[in-house]
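May I ask you for just one protein sequence along with its backbone structure tokens in two labelled lines?

_____
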Amino acid sequence: MSTIIQFNDIVTQFGSNRVHDGVSFSVQQGEIFGLLGGSGSGKSTLLRQMIMLQSPTSGRIDILGNTLGTLSPKQIETLQLQWGVLFQFGALFSSLSVLENICVALKEYTKLPMEVITDIAHAKIKMVGLPPHSAYLYPAELSGGMKKRVGLARALAMDPKLLFLDEPTSGLDPASARAFDRLIIELKYMLNLTIIMVTHDLESIEYALDRFIILHNKKILIEGTMEDVQAMSHPALDNFFKTNKV
């Protein structure tokens, strides 16, 4: 496997508050990689840095062979079109239908005819397990689980190489959360995706993630698999898994 994302010695500071103090890790092609940690540990900040919504105070981030912070506006746009993002609450446009939400990026960044764009959007709706009639519903008419799936369909609209998920199962009942985990795994293999997920859902961690980091006290406590965690004894690990047990 090749390295898709590399963080080297990342420091993140907001005023006098240091969130990350020398964080380094890598994400390999084709894996589902988790960003874990307690509240305030900076896991969502790492995600925002990956998608260029925030910059670290110091250190280096490489994604798909590009060093963030050194790119021209055109290079940034080209890179961002290679990933999709599912935000925690879906971030759907409330005035647009499901179909229209999924079509937004395709209309903005391609020159495809509208009938082709519509066909692609319908295909993405089917891909994420939504019924055909949901294309014509509006966000206010959707359940929490359906909103997540629409957000996922929109994130997949441009056939990205990378998929970023921010707390994808938060707010879902256990059955819906496990169904979403299964969908993510299926899509990974179907689309040859590399997936980065912020989560505190213990069942998602155990079932869906290939590897992960756990942030603690501004640094990475561990980078590895559940087997690596089980072989390591540390009070912070015990507390993390006890706190997030469902």
Q: What stands out?
A: The chain has a mean pLDDT of 91. The chain is about 35% helix and 25% strand. The first strand starts at residue 3 and ends at 14.
